Amino acid sequence: MTRRTARTALLAAGELLAWWAALALLWLVLISTVDTLERIVGASCAAAGALLARAGRRAVTWR
Fold first, then answer.
1. Per-residue pLDDT, 2
2. Cβ atoms of residues 14 and 54 within 8 Å
3. 16-22 long-range contacts, Cβ below 8 Å, gap at least 24?
4. CA 7 to CA 5: how far, in whole Å?
């Protein structure tokens, strides 16, 4: 793996993590009770949202 590829992968992972954290936090703010199932669903939805947000941003900015 070249340096540029490694840097790109780290930036992509960082962006996904940032999106996931923001969306998971939003999920926790909007629900009234927090139990295990809701945490799993929230984390899964936040992960899917993070992937879609990154794909949408890449589509708009052509990167």
1. 81
2. no
3. 16/50, 16/51, 16/54, 17/50, 19/46, 19/49, 19/50, 19/53, 19/54, 20/46, 20/47, 20/49, 20/50, 21/46
4. 5
Helix locations, the chain, DSSP H: 3-30, 36-61
Q: What pLDDT shows up at residue 46? A: 95
pLDDT of 3-41, one tens digit each?
889 898 999 999 999 999 999 999 988 887 788 988 899
Instruction: For residue 57, give both structure tokens.
Output: 């941003």
Instruction: Say which residue the tokens 């992937």 belong to.
Output: 51
